[in-house]
Amino acid sequence: VQLVESGGGLVQPGGSLRLSCAASGFTFSRYTMSWYRQAPGKERELVAEISSAGGYTNYADSVKGRFTISRDNAKNTVYLQMNILKPEDTAMYYCNKIPLGGWGQGTQVTVSS
C-alpha cells in the first residue's frame, strides 16, 4: 500500500487549499477513504471520510461546511477541498483507507497571517 499526499502549504486565514492523495497497492475503488490530521502535541484526528463509491461522506464537526472530500476512482485519488481556513486547521494532513493501513508522509498545512 502506498499513499502519497500533496497540495499542502502556507495560506492566510480565510484562504483555500486542495489536498490530493494518490493511492496504489490495493483496490482503491473498494475502500472507504479518509483524511486525518495531526497538530503538534495533539493526537491524530479524523477530518473526513468518503465511501467507496462516493455516495456517503462524513466530517468532523470542526470542518463541516468548510471542507469537502471527494474521490476519483479512475485515478485512484482522493481529494480534500479546504475553504475558509483557520489557524486551528494547521496540521500535518494524511490520507488512509478504512480499515486503516500504513501511513504516508503527509502534507503540511499551515494557516497563518
Annotate the secondary structure layout.
Blueprint: E1 2-6, E2 9-11, E3 17-24, E4 32-38, E5 45-50, E6 57-59, E7 67-72, E8 77-82, E9 91-98, E10 107-111
Parallel strand pairs: 2-10
Antiparallel strand pairs: 1-3, 3-8, 4-5, 4-9, 5-6, 7-8, 9-10
Distance between the termini: 37 Å
Order of helices and strands: EEEEEEEEEE
What is the number of strand segments? Answer: 10
Number of helices: 0
Protein structure class = mainly beta
Describe the largest sheet: 6 strands, mixed
Which strand order spans the largest sheet, edge to edge or round the barrel? 2-10-9-4-5-6
Q: Roughly what fraction of the amino acids lie in strands?
A: over 45%
Radius of gyration: 13 Å
pLDDT averaged over residues: 97
- The proportion of residues forming helix, as a percent range, comes to under 10%
Shape: globular
Low-pLDDT segments:
none
Can you walk me through this structure?
With 113 residues, this protein is mostly beta strands. It has a six-stranded mixed β-sheet with strand order 2-10-9-4-5-6, with no helix packed on it. Strands 1-3-8-7 form a four-stranded antiparallel β-sheet, with no helix packed on it. The protein has no helices and ten strands. The radius of gyration is 13 Å and the shape is globular. The model has no long low-confidence stretch (mean pLDDT 97). Helix content is 0%, strand content 50%. A hairpin with a 4-residue loop joins strand 7 (67-72) and strand 8 (77-82).
